[in-house]
Amino acid sequence: MTARRLDGAALGKTIREEVAAEVALLVADGIRPGLGVILVGEDPASEVYVRNKGRACEEAGMKSVTRRLDGTASEEEILAAVDDLNADESIHGFLVQTPLPKHVDTERVLRRVDPSKDVDGFHPLNVGKLVLGDPTAFKPATPSGVVQMLLREGIETAGAHAVIVGRSTIVGRPMANLLIQNGPGGNCTTTVCHSRSRDLPSITRQADILVVAIGRAKFVTADMVKPGAVVIDVGINRVEDATAKRGYRLVGDVDFEPVAEVASAITPVPGGVGPMTIAMLMVNTLQAVRQQAGLPVGK
Ligand code: NDP
């Protein structure tokens, strides 16, 4: 491997420690930041993510609340849980874990979240603020974690051509919006690709920074990457592995070993973008506390 390994686990830990230090100051002032999660049904990946969030919150000294609803819960019951957390003064930020069951209108539920508590940044008001470059926007945690990683690893973004593969509202689109912001960690020239993009490899090969978020195991191969590019792998895919204890292991959207021979820096899966996501969710919760208290918005 020639590429530098971008260690999201270590960076995420550093950020969580910074959050814990700020939480301690807030607690001394009588404010205990609270993060809530609404979890509907029993999606195994969501269970793991929610458990990790709860643990990270408690370690940082935050209050953590998980509202669990049965997978058969009606849309009205889910909306009632959202209303509860909107009204709960001890919860500064919360999110509704997706995917929601198929019978539920996800957009309707996400729009019910009070925008001032919307730490996932999925409410249209926060999406709009992000597009406008308004610093009070809550930035979706995964792409925001990617930007933090680039900043803290000293990777120059200004003037770089960033190619993003995937246009979801959770990752691809906000990633592009962050990388074109006029400021630190931004100023990229961005290209967003998706399943209808023609001749994808010819586009990915132009990337100085290649962010991949499509959900297809080892999709990006070495011939799709420009020598010296920075490769950020957001994908999390389960592949069968009889030698693994659970019968599967996690791999990214990038074929790690061969791509690491071509790239200058690369994120592993697991241990890359994933831990940054949780750390940034906590940063967003502190942002919610500050904004609700009328304090200046931090970084
Ligand atoms: P979505 O399924 O919502 O979006 C996938 C995107 O990839 C779509 O825009 C789709 O295009 C595009 N795509 C799919 N196949 C191809 C292809 N062959 N060529 C080009 N583009 C393609 O996924 P998410 O954005 O929610 O998640 C992506 C991955 O990231 C998943 O593996 C997920 O588990 C992971 N993830 C990881 C997180 C973390 O914390 N590390 C957090 C969130 C997600 P189209 O729009 O045309 O269908």
Number of domains: 2
CATH architecture of the largest domain: 3-Layer(aba) Sandwich
- By CATH, the topology of the largest domain is Rossmann fold
Helix and strand element order: EHEHEHEHHHEHEHEEEEHEH
Radius of gyration: 19 Å
Which regions have little confidence, pLDDT < 50, spanning 5+ residues?
none
User: Which percent range describes the beta-strand content?
Assistant: 15-25%
Distance between the amino and carboxyl termini: 34 Å
The fourth-level CATH homologous superfamily of the largest domain is NAD(P)-binding Rossmann-like Domain
What is bound: which ligands? NADPH dihydro-nicotinamide-adenine-dinucleotide phosphate
Helix content: 25-40%
Overall pLDDT score: 97
Given this structure, which CATH class of the largest domain is correct?
Alpha Beta
Which class do the helix and strand fractions yield? alpha/beta
Main beta sheet: strand number and arrangement?
Answer: 6 strands, parallel
The number of helices is: 10
How many β strands by DSSP? 11
The shape, in one word, is: globular
Question: What is the gist of this entry?
Answer:
The protein is built from 10 helices and 11 strands. The protein has 299 residues and is α/β, with parallel strands linked by helices. The chain has 2 domains: 86 residues, Rossmann fold, CATH 3.40.50; 134 residues, 3-Layer(aba) Sandwich (Rossmann fold), CATH 3.40.50.720.
